[in-house]
Amino acid sequence: MIKAIWNIIIGACFMCPALTSAQYVRFTPEFTRPGDSVTLFYNPTNTPLQGLAPVQGRMYTFANNEWQARDLTMQMVDSGWVTKFYLPEGSAFSVFNFEANGIVDKGGKMTYATMHTAKDGRIMAQGYTTWGFLRSPMFRSEMPPVVDSSAMIAKEVTMMWLKNEILHHPESRRPLYPYAIRVVREVRGKDGDSIILRENKFILSQPDATEQELIQVRDAYQSMLGDKQHADSVDQLIAARFPNGIAARDIMIKKLFLAKPEQRDVLWQEFTQRFPLGKLSNTETEKMYYGKVYRGRVYEAVGKTKNLSILDSMMAPAPFVALTEFHRLLIMNAWEHDQVGFDEALEYSGKLVKYIEAYTTKREGENSNFYTPLQWKQYILSLSVPAFKGHAVLLHKAGKDQEALTWLEKVKDQPDAKRADFLDIYAQVLMKNNRQRDAQDVAEAAARNNKATPATIEILKSAYVKKHGNDKGFDSYFESMKNTDDLNKEREALKAQLIRRDAPEFRLEQMSGGEAILSRLKGKIVVLDFWATWCGPCKEALPGMQMVVNKYKNDKDVQFYFIATQETKPDYKQAIKEFMQSKGYHLSVLFDAKDKNTGKLDATYNKYVKAMGFSGIPAKFIIDQHGVIRWMGSGYKGSPSGLADEISYIVELLKKEG
Questions:
Q1: In what helix (H) or strand (E) does residue 559 lie, and over which residues does it extend?
Q2: Which of 212, 216, 227, 328 has the greatest number of beta carbons closer than 10 A?
Q3: Alpha-carbon span 34 to 120, nearest angstrom
């Protein structure tokens, strides 16, 4: 009976290769063949996209042993959407997704998939297995994410599709080897060892076996069969046949990763001669170590030469993440810490962002072919926001605001472009380009989401004064722009964070002269901010802290102190003064005392760490009028106005308590 059911299922596949309901998707011609021009009709009625427009299509095709993804332009017709596409030669199977307003329709349990037919009317080779593997949980991470979880099938059904593939296309045995042995192990367990062994021998018997195939055999002996002797034997075969191949490259990568500093120069020269840079293999070793080795090579060179010239030879073949990390650490972070001059930072920033942008049309990574061109471009741009924004900051400082705007607008619609720091520079650059209305819109968006900065607030204030003739009522207007529901939720969360811990005493030198002693501040609300000049998030939070300091500057019952801790530079006191002056901050800075045990400048910080059981900066404490810690906050969420609101809310609560 069961066999009869399977025969009916397979027979249905021969009769109609389309695996989806014609109610939603139809193909013309019905039997799609490689090399044909095909018309696809999509009816969104009773689907998640019903009533939505425009609809975009995406097509994922398995052809010539790999996945190909493309975007489809859909045209609206009376009863749905239609598109035409050319089906590449070698296409075995295709599956379609449709999207509108951020909602994706994958077809549910039935999917929108079709097997393609050859000229003789048979299903194309690997059509059966692609249909099975695409819906198999065991291969989910290796298939494009184009079907819903409701479409998943049991491992026994996966085995059935595999058997029928081999039955109808014996030539598929070799390319399906690594998948087939996994299905056998999953379904039959140890009872399938003899089949795995047989398939291993089959691959080894091929005179033109590729290195990748031999690596798969080695892994099967080692991980599936636990046969180290045969695994080692295959390793020796790989080394003999492919002395400069994938396995040899992996060995060198790991060797470089573990090498001592004095060995790296020689090893790197050998590596680059044997394995040209930029030719990636997508192995586990490469994913784990290559990026670290590559970046480490550049960082070492910069450390030795004290300039960025090494980048000239290392940018073109660099992995994408290496480029973004170079920009973050060697450009922006180094410039902010006076480790690189402005002109050099701007020059190499410009070079790096061009290489970063080039990846929008340059694929990298084993699953990069799961993205359509538009998806890949958006994916790369989503990861490029910090670099493009940082480059715009440098261009803005250089007075090149038109160019700065170009880079900002490439990524303005990405999720990270909603951050306060991006909105801040974007609004300023728009103003410099005489796009006042657009700048005001950006500033208003920042205010509504409580991500305003001093610069965006000033833009709003200028527009308000222009309209009303003065700034009377601006503070109320600004507050009214914030989302009340979000504010109330945040305030409830802050109220739940209130605590009671005795505040450790301190007696610290003030940058402005004299000493600050906590015990003498009884009767005042004291806000402490532990920070350091080397701490990026600490410095990013200071604009928000300056906002709240300004709010209470005339309030004698509220005192703010910014405790500079864990500083290491001999001239750190002078450096802090110069930093405050360069940024225009007016903050009461205290210098942390030396720890008697370690000699480090973190004695007060350590007292608060011990009292509160935390570590890390920035860290903020609010102490009430009785010398009791009532609130602690760590890290920085990225919003100056949000931070100012947090501190203000707690201060006002403590005022009411008295």
A1: strand 558-564
A2: 216
A3: 12
Q: Cα separations (Å) of 343 from 308, 349, 628?
A: 11, 10, 49
Rounded to whole angstroms, the Cα distance separating 549 from 644 reads 9
Q: Which residue, 404, 399, 387, 447, is CA-closest to 423?
A: 447
pLDDT value at 10 more than 60: no
Is residue 593 within 8 A of residue 553, CB to CB? The reply is no
Task: Determine the Cα–Cα distance for residues 218 and 402; give it in Å rounded to an integer.
Answer: 57
Among residues 19, 85, 92, 81, which one has the least CA distance to residue 47? 81
Give pLDDT tens digits for 598-635: 999 999 999 999 999 888 999 999 999 999 999 999 99
User: If DSSP codes are grouped into helix, strand and coil, which group holds residue 560?
Assistant: strand
Angle between helices 436-448 and 420-432 (to 10 degrees): 160
Q: Contacts from 132-139 at CB under 8 Å and sequence distance 24+?
A: 132/157, 132/158, 132/160, 132/161, 132/162, 132/165, 133/158, 133/161, 133/179, 134/93, 134/95, 135/111, 136/183, 138/182, 138/183, 138/186, 139/179, 139/182
* Model pTM score: 0.88
Q: What is the gyration radius of the CA atoms in the chain, in angstroms?
A: 32
Strands 37-42, 589-591: pairing is unpaired
d(CA 438, CA 411): 16
Instruction: Select the CATH number that applies to the domain covering 492-657 from these four: 3.40.190.10, 2.60.290.11, 3.40.50.720, 3.40.30.10.
Output: 3.40.30.10
Residue type at position 178: P
CA-closest candidate to residue 145, choices 50, 81, 67, 44: 67
Q: What's the CATH number of domain 2-172, 2.40.240.20, 2.60.120.10, 3.90.960.10, 2.60.40.10?
A: 2.60.40.10
Q: What is the pLDDT of residues 154-189, one digit of tens each?
A: 999 999 999 999 999 999 999 999 999 999 999 999
Tally Cβ neighbours within 10 Å of residue 371. Answer: 20
Q: How far apart are CA 327 and CA 311, in angstroms?
A: 11
- Asked if 333 and 327 count as a contact pair (C-beta separation under 8 A), the reply is no
CB 254 within 8 A of CB 246: no
Determine the Cα–Cα distance for residues 271 and 276; give it in Å rounded to an integer. 8
Closest by Cα among 463, 458, 451, 447 to 422: 451
- In whole angstroms, give the CA distance from residue 348 to residue 337: 17
- Beta carbons of 94 and 32 less than 8 angstroms apart: yes
Confidence check: pLDDT of 127 > 70? yes
The single residue listed with the structure tokens 């860290």 is 619
647: amino acid identity, one letter: I
Pairing of strands 91-100, 103-105: antiparallel
